[in-house]
């Protein structure tokens, strides 16, 4: 079985694939960070959605008042959902793009701009920056994904 | 390193994998389109959720009235979330299915029906079509994914 | 082309990759189950969100009263979204981890604990269990994903 493992390792040894692995892990970790930011705001703003989450604040009405929405919590949640909507396409299309044999330089350019755009988008959403800051950072990540999709379809199209 | 790249390219040269790459890219692009449709409805219906998005409409109360929900915007957002809930399983299970050595004809049948069902689901949701139009298109995509999961588990099961 | 197919099959023949395929399919199927639970609660609680979904209950006001939110439906939907937020990172980081050449024993430990944690999280959310039941099951899955991300970045880092 060591022969098979060697072949698997070759995939992770390929520079384009390593770059994909690196930037995909970075943007997924960044997305996971949104869960911690949501939890932080829920606890500091005392704004919860599940009755069992407020049980430590006492029983009945004294705990019930913490079952409410908070603008900061909702803002982080919208940023998190926007990550899902944009990082899922990157995850899938980026993998296929990495396997479609792009030049290393071109691939790195795509991955770096996408990761930078999504990190910028998070800052633009959470600070928040005035528009079109958030719109532009979103559009850049979107355009990079479309560009990779174009490469995948022109390389691999089989309908 | 050209030897490694050649091996990578073999993956994208495999017909089943090319079909997976093609249909996955199509359904992910379709899902990404939902972001544009949401933005279109937010702007034409003037229904926003972030205060910074309405700043161009003026200050204070004149802009605040555009911070509201709109039925058309919410409908597109539900369609988008339904895409996420169903296309993420296709992305993962479909990849493993493509690597599990299915017949090309069978694989194409799965991928084509899934993509068709998700496109039909979007039309059924946005027009909207009377039920059970949307329910049926959802169920067809769901059943295709279950069928691929069955093939993956019978081929690769290692608990 | 049978040579290429053989190479593809070697991927699914690798024990670590087979384990990844198995547990990924299991957690994705578990996530898909949330759609059925949502539909079940929507129908038994008669709580719908789309007007076309209540058409079978009659016309006008008699059907309109079923366009409402229900605590049980909303609970399942939150569990479903939490699945998306946590299983998407597992899908991507887990794949890269499986390709980074981990020991079979270590890989199985990661995959089994993650799958167990997510199944426990679903029960904790839907029953619901008192906290910190849900928080702990969430944190365990989160920590496993971070551990896999660490392995990927130390093996494949290419910035």
Give the topology, please.
Three copies of one chain form a homotrimer.
Chain A: H1 2-13, H2 15-44, H3 61-64, H4 71-98, H5 104-126, H6 133-156
Helix pairs in contact in A: 2-4, 2-5, 4-5, 4-6, 5-6
Features:
159 residues; Four Helix Bundle (Hemerythrin (Met), subunit A); homotrimer; 6 helices; mainly alpha
Structure explained in plain terms:
The structure is a homotrimer of 159-residue chains. Chain A is mainly α. Chain A has a single domain, classed as Membrane associated eicosanoid/glutathione metabolism-like domain (Four Helix Bundle (Hemerythrin (Met), subunit A), Up-down Bundle). Helix content of chain A is 76%, strand content 0%. In chain A, helix 2 (15-44) runs antiparallel to helix 4. The longest helix of chain A is centred in the N-terminal third of the chain and has 30 residues, at 15-44. Chain A is elongated, with a radius of gyration of 20 Å. Chain A starts with a helix and ends with a helix. Mean pLDDT of chain A is 92; it is low at 1-6. The A-B interface holds A 7, 10-11, 13-17, 75, 78, 81, 84-86, 88-89, 91-93, 95-96, 99-101, 128-131, 134, 138, 142, 145-146, 149, 152-153, 155-159 and B 1, 4-5, 7-9, 11-12, 15, 17-19, 21-22, 24-25, 28-29, 31-32, 34-35, 49-50, 52-53, 55-56, 80-81, 84, 87-88, 91, 95. Chains A, B, C: It is a multi-pass membrane protein. Chains A, B, C: Its main location: endoplasmic reticulum. Chains A, B, C: Its EC number is 2.5.1.18.
